Amino acid sequence: MIDAMDKAAGLSPEDALFATRRFRPEFVQGAEECRLSVLQPANDQGLAANLRVALARRMAALNADPVLMAEYDVQLAQLGPTEQLLSLARGETDLEEPLVTIAKHVDLITLTPKKAEASHIVLLAQAGLNNPQIVALSELIAFVNFQARVATGLRLMRSA
């Protein structure tokens, strides 16, 4: 079965790298379960699926990953995004609260994680996010950036 990571890396079952990934099936399964838990959780904690996918698309763009951008564009279109969410996904910053604060946080963690401080979490709380939402947002940021890096690495290995 092709998972989202295979798709992002352009792998097919005929590729040796596809088979290599299956030497550790728990990693393949774990990454897919993680993807589903951050993009389509049973309890979204008030962070709707269209917001999550818009943020994922934004992070894919920040990571300069056109494959992931296209995939998240397709997913977002299926979720009926608002104009604000489309702006968020495109990387714009002229947004309403709490989206502007969320966008700044996503950009910070994606581009310059070393600059992150506890005060940035306080800003999320001040924008109206509660602790479970902040945790859910953090999980989403971690996964999408992980996905972009792994997909890039797999593409590089495939092209070697």
What's the architecture in CATH terms?
Up-down Bundle
- Main pleated sheet: none
Considering DSSP H and I runs of 4 or more, what fraction of the residues is helical? over 70%
Query: What is the approximate shape?
Result: globular
Note the gap between the termini.
24 Å
CATH superfamily annotation:
AhpD-like
Question: Briefly, what CATH class?
Answer: Mainly Alpha
Helix/sheet category = mainly alpha
Report low-confidence residues grouped into runs of 5 or more: none
Q: Please provide the count of β strands.
A: 0
Sheet-strand content, in percent, reads under 5%
Number of helical elements: 9
Order of helices and strands: HHHHHHHHH
The overall number of domains is: 1
The overall pLDDT average reads 96
Q: What's the CATH topology name?
A: AhpD-like
Radius of gyration: 16 Å
Give a verbal description of the structure:
It is a single chain. The protein has helices at residues 4-9, 16-21, 25-39, 49-62, 66-78, 83-89, 99-111, 118-126, 131-159. The protein contains 9 helices and no strands. Helix 4 (49-62) packs across helix 9 (131-159). The model has no long low-confidence stretch (mean pLDDT 96). It is mostly helical. It has a single domain, classed as AhpD-like (Up-down Bundle), CATH 1.20.1290. The relative contact order is 0.17. InterPro entries: AhpD-like.
SSE layout:
Layout: H1 4-9, H2 16-21, H3 25-39, H4 49-62, H5 66-78, H6 83-89, H7 99-111, H8 118-126, H9 131-159
Quick tags:
160 residues; mainly alpha; AhpD-like
Short description:
The protein is built from nine helices and no strands. It has 160 residues and is an all-alpha fold.
